[in-house]
Write a structure and sequence with these properties.
It contains three helices and five strands; from the N terminus they run αβββαββα. With 135 residues, it is of the alpha+beta class. The structure holds zinc ion.
Length: 135
């Protein structure tokens, strides 16, 4: 398999590594949305959140908290986005599970948002019923 994130996570390609342990590497993104934009990469290949084991997903979130806390102090950010895309429709471009840590400042112009739509209470009930069937 020729996966760029496998190579980055496992040190086959040099990276600006902020953190590393047995299961993860955190690197600076080469096309950052903001100063300090980083990626949490598991060293093992999982395409997306559907494939990642629960324990690894939990560790990724805990690592997200650890990194965001340290980066907020180091970079004096006012907040951060923790972004995790699954599937091309959701903007995933590299099909190796990853989480973006995007430090934010009050005056930055980065847009990690969406337009809000109106929804009827009937439609909300339909969606709720449909999703609950699979839980
Ligand atoms: Zn991979």
């Amino acid at each position: 398999m020729d996966c760029i994130f496998c190579k980055l996570a496992n040190g086959e390609i040099p990276t600006a590594t902020l953190y590393e342990d047995d299961e993860f590497r955190v690197i600076l993104d080469q096309g950052p949305a903001t100063k300090g934009h980083a990626l949490i990469l598991p060293k093992q290949h999982f395409a997306n959140i559907y494939e990642i084991p629960d324990e690894t997903a939990a560790k990724a979130m805990i690592l997200g908290k650890k990194m965001a806390t340290a980066m907020t102090k180091a970079l004096h950010s006012d907040g951060f986005n923790l972004v995790q895309n699954n599937g091309e429709a959701a903007g995933q471009t590299v099909f190796h599970f990853h989480m973006h840590i995007i430090p934010r400042h009050n005056d930055d112009t980065v847009n990690v948002g969406w337009e809000k739509h109106k929804v009827s209470s009937e439609r909300i009930k339909d969606i709720t019923d449909e999703v609950r069937k699979y839980l």
